[in-house]
């Protein structure tokens, strides 16, 4: 006799989870998994992380998701932000039988009995921030950090400084562009 009470897990997100772009060193974002028990009777299911690989991670678990219900918040997956690049890995979610109500004892999946597992691919881009680099390539002035000082004598003309501005973040395809525009200080009132 077919088990009409058995729990049947479905991951609604699909088997490939793509996360939005992130930055190196920031707290990694997670994508919640949407899991439905499409069994329509009385058994519940549990879901937990069985394993992870590569740059993927997973958190959380689900307990006693009854037939016809969906959990959109309890299990999450993500990728490491420890280094820049196209980061990917695998997550295996294991499903087991949960609570069995009294009218399904004869047919339901035993509590803790395996309901199989699902392998997911988790991927996302991790980028370095742009990094400002300034160098004094002329002979006028002194550059210290991001401060540039020019000593000029009133009445001797305008001093011109030559500065090189560049993005010193790694040129690996996973660093943001640096956009630079001049900012002119407001005039200072004479004292």
Describe the structure.
- With 191 residues, the chain is mainly beta.
- It folds into two domains: 9-127, Sandwich (Immunoglobulin-like); 132-167, no CATH class.
- 0% of the residues lie in helices and 45% in strands.
- The protein is built from no helices and 15 strands.
- It has strands spanning 9-11, 16-18, 22-23, 31-32, 35-37, 44-54, 56-66, 70-71, 75-79, 85-97, 114-127, 132-136, 142-144, 147-149, 163-167.
- The strands form four sheets. Strands 2, 3, 4, 6, 7, 9, 10 and 11 form an eight-stranded mixed beta sheet that branches.
- Strand 6 and strand 7 (56-66) form a beta hairpin.
- The model has no long low-confidence stretch (mean pLDDT 84).
Q: Which features does this protein show?
A:
2 domains; eight-stranded mixed beta sheet; three-stranded antiparallel beta sheet; mainly beta; about 45% strand; rod-shaped; about 0% helix; Immunoglobulin-like; about 190 residues
